């Protein structure tokens, strides 16, 4: 049943989205002074020489969630905000993360964790509906 729900979300637009073959711009997600550990979160985008950032504190509900969930949700919230502002349309994005679970779930397209699967689906929908060329690359936390 979850597969049917996922397909419905991916193919929900009345008009199918056009899929670009090559991007016209590049954006980079940069982890600078933070991530989604502990009670806080932050995401930094470097887009055509301009830094766009967001940061804050998790609600009590989110603080109880797994670190894998918080890390991925933080990135997706950043993507959703930047996409809504039109900053990532038709961009190639290199996302560097120290979260191997998020990287694995993105490349496999699924997760045994329902909350992580829902986040991966949101990310795939953003990729599809905003013509993103998304690369998720693991980098050890000691190198970030």
Spell out the blueprint of helices and strands.
Elements: H1 2-10, E1 25-30, E2 40-47, E3 50-57, H2 60-63, H3 67-84, E4 91-97, H4 100-108, H5 114-129, E5 133-138
Descriptive notes:
By secondary structure, the chain is of the alpha/beta class. The chain has a single domain, classed as Nucleotidyltransferase, domain 5 (2-Layer Sandwich), CATH 3.30.420. Helices cover 39% and strands 24% of the residues. It contains 5 helices and 5 strands; from the N terminus they run H-E-E-E-H-H-E-H-H-E. The protein has helices spanning 2-10, 60-63, 67-84, 100-108, 114-129, and strands spanning 25-30, 40-47, 50-57, 91-97, 133-138. The chain has a 5-stranded mixed β-sheet with strand order 3-2-1-4-5. Strand 2 and strand 3 (50-57) form a beta hairpin. Helix 3 runs parallel beside helix 5. It starts with a helix and ends in a 6-residue tail after the last strand. The mean pLDDT is 81.
């Amino acid at each position: 049943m979850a597969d049917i729900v996922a397909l419905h979300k991916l193919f929900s637009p009345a008009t199918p989205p056009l899929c670009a073959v090559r991007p016209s711009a590049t954006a980079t997600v940069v982890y600078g002074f933070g991530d989604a550990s502990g009670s806080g979160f932050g995401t930094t985008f470097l887009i055509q020489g301009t830094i766009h950032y967001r940061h804050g504190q998790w609600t009590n509900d989110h603080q109880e969630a797994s670190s894998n969930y918080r890390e991925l949700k933080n990135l997706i919230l950043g993507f959703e905000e930047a996409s809504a502002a039109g900053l990532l349309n038709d961009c190639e994005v290199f996302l560097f993360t120290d979260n191997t679970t998020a990287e694995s779930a993105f490349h496999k397209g699924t997760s045994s964790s329902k909350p992580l699967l829902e986040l991966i689906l949101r990310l795939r929908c953003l990729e599809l509906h905003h013509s993103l060329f998304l690369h998720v690359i693991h980098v050890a936390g000691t190198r970030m």
